[in-house]
Amino acid sequence: MRIARFAGDDDPRFGVIGDDNGVPTIAVLNGDPLYAGLNLSGQKIPLADVRLLAPVIPRSKVVCVGKNYAKHALEMGGEVPEEPLIFLKPNTSVIGPGEPIFYPEQSENVHFEGELAVVIGRICRDVSVEDAPKVIFGYTVANDVTARDLQVKDGQWARAKGFDTFCPLGPWIETDFDPSNVRVTTELGGELKQDGRTSDMVFTVPDVIAYVSSFMTLLPGDVILTGTPDGVGPMVVGDQVSVSVEGIGTLTNPVVSRND
After folding, report:
1. Per-position pLDDT tens, the chain of length 260
2. Counting C-beta atoms within 10 Å of the first and last residue's C-beta, which end of the chain has fewer, N or C?
3. What whole-number distance in Å separates Cα of residue 171 and Cα of residue 207?
4. pTM as predicted
């Protein structure tokens, strides 16, 4: 099931992506499905008549895993971590499909990082690897945008990863999904830059959830970015970057100057 957050002529709402006699539609839900469940309102809207938003705005945090693909760890000049390397993005960095990534004036080297993202569905702590699937609401596509020069300069990653617009998510949440071996790609201006499979992750999705929940409580709507394959690189103002996860969809965002 694909659950989207969208805007029409009123406040943002949630709905289920479907098909009505060959026309892509969105069946409107009553409330936020993370809290209200899948409560259909009975209203259907043509998908072409709405604007998709980030499918979730984390009320708490975006948790990210660094260097979770061995080839990416090597291209960054480091060793493969012995345990998950965790950092955070603020929820103010989240944007949705089609929204612009603002290129900040403080950086001269902003990179794309296409990733699979996990949306947490319930409050949890100390989750075992075996029980991890029980706390997952669904999966979406993410771009862990990074100011690479600031990452090196600062020696820690809060600023480099945390600018407004540096966490595109979308286009929707897929609830029926096996993350163990799917293709993750990134295209820049139509040119393939990243091409990996989640089977190459150093730490699996259940591994990561068990590790993170061992030291922090996860809340409904929290998002976990699971790491990026090798092939990361710079993007500039005027570029368009598209991240695709097999079985979910494609997330596309333009890059614009923050000062325009």
Report:
1. 999 999 987 789 999 999 988 999 999 999 999 999 999 999 999 999 999 999 999 989 999 999 999 999 888 888 889 999 999 999 999 999 999 999 999 999 999 999 999 999 999 999 999 999 999 999 999 999 999 999 999 999 999 999 999 999 999 999 999 999 999 999 999 999 999 999 999 999 999 999 999 999 999 999 999 999 999 999 999 999 999 999 999 999 999 998 86
2. C
3. 25
4. 0.97
Beta strands in the chain, from DSSP E residues, in sequence order: 2-7, 13-20, 23-29, 40-46, 51-52, 62-66, 85-89, 94-95, 101-103, 110-112, 114-120, 136-143, 146-147, 167-174, 183-188, 191-197, 223-225, 233-234, 240-245, 249-257
Tell me whether residue 67 is exposed, middle or buried, using C-beta atoms within 10 angstroms of its C-beta: 0 to 12, 13 to 18, 19 or more: buried
